[in-house]
Design brief:
The protein is 42% helix and 7% strand. It is mainly α. The protein has two domains: 39 residues, no CATH class; 49 residues, no CATH class. A hairpin with a 4-residue loop joins strand 1 and strand 2.
Length: 120
């Protein structure tokens, strides 16, 4: 019996992202020792996107709900996934998602309030 492959625990090496973060750290806000002790990290990365963490900074979270790509509508978004240009693919997928083909759970006040309470 083969042993399972080890799970990758380190972020992917993205030289462009590392340079971007290094540059932002040079000219932008840097956390003080006290802020570091509170958990604020300033500009950092986990291998994919730059992150900024500082006191009193508004952040946002993106949710993808389980039915945002309904199986019954698969043929519609499968064609978009074949788009070779990543930028165009992202724009087309965002436009498709904005049409609200799923249940749109966050439009329901009770669900939206539950999510809001969890975030706060």
């Amino acid at each position: 019996m083969e042993s399972p492959k080890p799970i990758r625990r380190t972020p992917p090496k993205n030289v462009g992202l590392l340079e971007l973060i290094r540059g932002k750290r040079e000219w932008d806000w840097k956390p003080s020792i006290a802020e570091l002790k509170q958990g604020f990290r300033g500009w950092h990365q986990r291998g994919f996107l730059p992150h900024f963490d500082a006191p009193d900074v508004t952040q946002f979270v993106t949710f993808q709900l389980h039915d945002s790509f309904p199986v019954t509508r698969g043929a519609e978004f499968e064609a978009i996934l074949k788009e070779p240009d990543d930028s165009a693919k992202r724009r087309k997928l965002e436009a498709w998602l904005d049409r609200g083909h799923g249940e749109c759970w966050l439009r329901r006040r009770d669900v939206a309030e539950l999510v809001e309470k969890g975030l706060l």
